[in-house]
Design a protein that fits this description.
Length: about 180
C-alpha cells in the first residue's frame, strides 16, 4: 500500500489536521465528553487551537509521517471528528485515538475511521503494535477498541498524569509467504 495524504472510506475522508481546522478543533476539544474522557487541553480560542495544532500535531507528522486526522463526512463535507495515530510517552506501540462531536456519535463513524487508520498503520506505516488507552468509565471507547481487535492487557498511568487508564494492544500479524 502506497502512503497517501488523504485516506478514504465509504463515507469519510481522513486528512491530516491543519490550521484551517482550528475552529472545528476548538468546538471538539471543548465538548463535554472530550473534556471528560480525553482531557481538558486548555484550548479556549481559535488562536489556542492553532497553537495546539502547530505544537502537538505538526511535529509528530513531520517526524513520523502520521498524527491526527480530521474526519470529514463525504456527503456534505462536514468536519465531524478526529482520529489519529499518536506516539505517546509511556505507551508501547502507537496509540490509536478518536474523538467525535456529540451529534456524530453512535453512527459508526469512529469505527469506520479507526478501522482505516488501523489498516494504514500496519500496511503503509509499518507499525507493529497499536495501543489504545481509555478511562475506566468510557465504555463506548472500550467497546470500540475491542471491536477494532485490541485486547485489554492491563492499566497504565501516563507520565505527568495521575489517572489510571485501561491499556489495550494489538500486534500486527506477520504473514509468511
Amino acid at each position: 500500500m502506497q502512503v497517501q495524504t488523504i485516506f478514504e472510506t465509504e463515507r469519510l475522508f481522513l486528512r491530516p489536521a491543519n490550521e484551517e481546522d482550528a475552529t472545528f478543533y476548538l468546538e471538539l476539544m471543548n465538548s463535554p465528553k472530550y473534556i471528560e474522557f480525553i482531557g481538558d487541553r486548555n484550548v479556549r480560542s481559535v488562536s489556542d487551537a492553532i497553537d495546539y495544532i502547530r505544537e502537538k500535531i505538526y511535529p509528530q507528522y513531520e517526524r513520523l509521517g502520521y498524527s491526527a486526522y480530521t474526519v470529514i463526512r463525504k456527503s456534505d463535507g462536514k468536519k465531524i471528528g478526529t482520529c489519529g495515530l499518536y506516539d505517546r510517552i509511556g505507551i508501547e506501540g502507537i496509540d490509536i485515538g478518536f474523538g467525535f462531536l456529540p451529534q456524530f456519535e453512535k453512527q459508526g463513524y469512529a469505527f469506520e475511521a479507526a478501522s482505516k487508520l488501523k489498516e494504514v498503520a500496519f500496511e503503509a506505516f509499518g507499525i507493529t503494535t497499536i495501543s489504545g488507552i481509555t478511562t475506566k468509565e468510557n465504555f463506548a471507547s472500550q467497546k470500540l477498541l475491542e471491536r477494532l481487535g485490541l485486547k485489554q492487557i492491563g492499566t497504565q498511568i501516563l507520565p505527568t498524569e495521575t489517572e489510571e487508564l485501561l491499556l489495550y494492544s494489538l500486534k500486527r500479524e506477520l504473514r509468511s509467504n
